[in-house]
Design brief:
Structural class: mainly alpha
Helix content: 55-70%
Order of helices and strands: HHHHHHHHHHHHHHHHHHH
Number of strands: 0
Oligomer: single chain
Largest sheet: none
Radius of gyration: 23 Å
């Protein structure tokens, strides 16, 4: 159910027909429903959405499946309920914003909102993790997300006391920043697993607030350039199994290499369609037209296959990231080209749409299976280092933490084929929010 503003309204608790002649729920029924919702958060967080079943949710909640169906029609229904809770809390956090101004008071308003959003993410992390893939398959979930985002974008725009952006331009910029905010928390969470002291919440939240404030108002020294003296961060590397993958292929005969490549292609297709936890070795073998016995000649398990696919995808992404236009150092007298950045973003979008999906799937998998090691953090840190190098010449702010924000921005931008309006929003945030530059003429 959606209110007039487009954000899902709180739903009253009632038993579903035909499970009771009287749909009214008492205290015991409320507790049962709350246990189911809490169980869903745990189950979705541990193993993802696609492999979860109603039986799993009922068992974790300590109730029968019949009791489950009194309150929810399916696991999708539970996810919709949880997503509605998230939408309402995020909406309330935006409603609580004061005026967005170019001064320190405006920065503080953004910083307080960033912290409120981080609290929501911390509690409902499982919903954020699984919602995107579930929404791709379920129109009602996708519509809920669009409705809530539209409302929040309009609210944030209404808080801006001044901006050089037209309404439609501001909306595209705000939408991109909202997506990047959630993705920043996601990436920081994974990096903290491997380097707990390097990316404390406060550091990441300061970086986010700086980038958002600069995207709205430009670089304001003393207001939105914090953390220049932040400590160095550690290098996070892949484990030894990952390092052996390229050599394994080169040692094969031509015929074996063709089989190996067929399994890689099939794995890419199956993982993108089913997700990591929803994919089975038999699915990959069938897609390749091979037996599962042949699969095990080349890969120890599906984790081994996924790790190899990630390293394969990183090669074209690495080349594309390395080609990002280099910003001139302050005082160098060198010119900056917005047109070159725009062209690069188009190339990056094309590359990421085709390659980065498998990296995201691998990262999602390691959120649910810690035994997969630090490879997800290593993949993210690889991208973060590339973007820290891009930001370093600007000479202000916390380059290492803001590189996480930059990576999140590019991840959101590259998540699908983007319109010209979204492209311009990405240019604006990269130039103004991350590089601290005034928009140059093309």
């Amino acid at each position: 159910m959606v209110d007039a503003g487009g954000v899902p309204a709180p739903e009253s608790i009632a038993r579903r027909v035909p499970f009771a002649n009287n749909p009214t729920v008492g205290q015991r029924g409320r507790l049962t429903q709350q246990r189911i919702v809490a169980a869903a958060l745990q189950v979705f967080g541990e193993g993802g959405y696609h492999t979860a079943s109603v039986a799993d949710l009922a068992k974790r909640a300590g109730c029968s499946r019949v009791a489950f169906y009194q309150y929810f029609s399916s696991k999708e229904d539970v996810l919709r309920y949880l997503a509605g809770q998230v939408a309402r809390q995020v909406g309330a956090s935006v409603e609580a914003m004061g005026p967005l101004t170019p001064d320190a008071a405006g920065w503080t308003t953004i910083r307080e909102w960033v912290e409120r959003y981080a609290d929501i993410y911390e509690h409902f992390g499982a919903v954020f993790h699984v919602f995107e893939s579930a929404a791709r398959e379920t129109l009602s979930l996708k519509a809920l997300n669009v409705q809530a985002a539209t409302t929040n974008i309009a609210l944030i725009r209404s808080r801006l006391t001044s901006t050089t952006l037209a309404h439609h331009e501001a909306d595209a910029v705000i939408g991109l920043l909202l997506g990047a905010t959630a993705r920043t928390y996601y990436s920081a969470e994974i990096l903290r697993h491997a380097a707990p002291r390097a990316y404390p919440r406060a550091r990441v939240e300061d970086a986010l607030a700086d980038v958002i404030h600069r995207a709205f108002f430009g670089l304001v020294p003393g207001v939105n350039a914090h953390g220049h003296d932040a400590g160095e961060v550690p290098f996070i590397d892949f484990d030894r199994r990952a390092g052996a993958a390229p050599a394994r292929r080169s040692a094969l005969t031509d015929a074996a290499r063709a089989t190996y490549d067929a399994l890689l292609s099939a794995g890419y297709e199956v993982f993108n369609k089913r997700g990591y936890h929803g994919a089975r070795v038999d699915d990959v073998a069938a897609a390749a037209g091979l037996s599962h016995g042949i699969f095990y000649r080349y890969f120890a398990n599906k984790a081994d296959l996924a790790r190899t696919l990630v390293l394969t995808a990183m090669t074209p992404l690495s080349s594309t990231l390395a080609a990002i236009p280099t910003p001139p150092a302050p005082g160098s007298g060198k010119a900056w080209s917005t047109a070159a950045l725009r062209d690069w973003l188009r190339t990056y979008n094309e590359t990421q749409v085709s390659e980065a999906g498998i990296i995201r799937i691998w990262v999602d998998a390691t959120l649910h299976e810690a035994v997969l090691g630090t490879d997800a953090a290593a993949a993210l840190d690889w991208g973060r280092r590339q973007l820290a190098h891009f930001l370093a010449p600007r000479g202000f702010g916390d380059v290492d933490a803001e590189a996480i924000v930059a990576m999140a921005l590019l991840d959101v931008f590259g998540g699908g084929h983007r319109s010209a309006e979204t492209l311009e929003a990405a240019v604006h945030v990269l130039e103004g929010g991350l590089l601290g530059q005034q928009r140059a003429s093309t």
